[in-house]
Every structure is written in structure tokens, then in C-alpha cells.
Design a protein that fits this description.
The chain is mostly beta strands. It is built from 3 helices and 27 strands. It is globular.
Length: 350
Amino acid sequence: MSRKTKVALPAVVSAAAGVLVLAIAVTASSSTAPTAPVSLGTVDYLGSLRSPADVKGRPSGFKRFLKKVLGLEDDHRRMILPHGIAVDASGRVLVADTKGRVVHLFDSAGHQYKQLHPPASDPFLSPIAIALDSQGRIYVTDSGRSRIFVFRPDGKFLRTLGGLGKDESIFKRCTGLAIDRQRDVLYVVDTVSMRVVVLDADGKVLERFGKPGKGPAEFNYPTHITVAADGTLWIVDSLNFRVQHLDASGKFLSAFGQLGEHSGEFDKPKGIVVDSQGRILVVEGRNDRVQAYDPDGQMIFAFGNTGSAPGEFFLPTGIALDKEGKIYVADGQNGRVEIFRPRAGGEGGR
């Protein structure tokens, strides 16, 4: 062994020891998800999704440190600004990341994660909402591109709907999306046009309804929509600070809501969904909460407040349910999807 090698060896050993010490420190300081549900009163907090590690499992602190040193971290696959959410029949969670310009697919049961992208020649610009048809095909509205991107259940890109040419579309700005899976009919909110456009699964326009205004079946920048089990529509009429209930053809049935920051009022209403008991859950973005109403517009319960701790929100957006009734909320500025379960026996689970 040369004299030069003898001198270098202690330095190598010392560096390795330093790496090990730092890795141990990383392990000790890393945060972990709750091992049991956390009660928030009307709901239990179950956990959150941010990155592939949440379904694939976190590597050891040593491996994470080495990845960081070598520049191999998965941070580029973390959610940036989640918006729309859908949960398929297998429990896979799909999230439209508006700022990340991607759809994240989290498969907890299969411990898999993937990203959905259209072709590079026709990319996402601002993906907003996600819905699934009866065959499990995935539909994503893009408000910036003013069209709908369609993917197979395995994530392979199929086609776009709504385009009339490279830079033209039947929509001015498509946002909210819901699909009646009994008929595979798409209801697309065209926010700037103040109306809802009805399409078949091939993109053929079947109907349009709505116009600007404050009256019944009139809108002031509508954003989100959901289809109830009976085929009727619940639409977030954002700047009229209300939710409208219409039949499948756009006929007005009822409405509830008003501007305010108190319980039962709206300031920046966003995502909406109807659960198996007919309760309407609405995300209140400005006030960082979810409010649940009966079909008559009476508030039943609410959960959430401003912050970044478990069960808190910072400008939440989308909402979805799985077949077990768990609630998934896109916590926009916190870059995550939080998961809740209504409590049995309480207002949230009755």
C-alpha cells in the first residue's frame, strides 16, 4: 500500500462515519403518519397522500439521506397543487395536480404509484377535475387547454374531447366534471360561459343549459358539479355563493347558501359530492372547511380549520368518496390529499 493510500483511508472512514451519523439524525427526526385514526369530532382523520412514499413505503433514513446526497429523491413527484380527486372501484386515488400539470395515481392496496400524462405534443396545461365512467376510463378537464383528456383505466392516453382545432374548443373554460355512470353522460361546467355542457362518452354535445344571472338555473361563474344517485345534479354556483339542485335536463329544483363566513355560509365554495345517505358535502375554500348539508339545505356537520396539521386545510379544493364512504379532500396549498372517515353514531356518520 502506498503512502498516499495510507493517508487517504482515514479520511474516507471519517466521511463514511459522518454520513452514518447524519443518516441516523435524519431517521430520528423524520415524521411518521398516525398509526391509528385521530378523532376530529364528527370525522376521524386517517392520513394523507403527498408522494409515492405514501403508498410504496418510506425507505430508511439512511437510504433517504443517500438519495438526497446523490440527487435521486422523489420530490419532483410530490403533489404541488392538488385539485380534482376521483377514487375508482379498486380504491385507487387519482388526483389532478393543477400546478404540477399531471395526474397522480395512488394505489395503496398494490403499493404502486404512477403519473398520467397526455402525449408531449398535446400536454396538460391546467388539469382541474377528474371523473370515471362505467368502464373505469378516466376523464380530466383542463381549464387552460379548454378540453377533456381521456385515459384508459391503466393510465394509457386515449384521446381528447371538446377540441375544434389546435387552439379552438367547444368550451371557453371547462372546469367541473361529473359523469352519470348509468348512461355514461358527461356534465361539464363551462365556467366562463356560465353554463353546463352535456356530452356523450365520444364527446358529442347532447345539450347545453344555464345562462348568466342570479335566478333559478342561472349562474355566476359556476365551478364544480356532482351527480347524485337519482341522476340529479348539484352545482356549485361560486359567485352567487350557493349550491343549485337541477334535474338531469337542467330544470331548477332548489338552491341553498349565501355569502358569509359563519357555519352554513359560503365565501369560496369549491368541490362537491353527495354521499350514500344523500348528504351534500361542500368544500369551503376560503374558510378551510368541509360542510355537510341535507337535501333541504340545512347544515348537518362540518370539519376542518386553517392550518397544516392533520385535519387542517389551506385553501382546499376538490372532494371525493370511495365505496366505503371515506372522504378525500384536496388540501390545495398544503400539497396533499387528506383522508377522513365519518364517525359512526355521530352527526358525521348517522
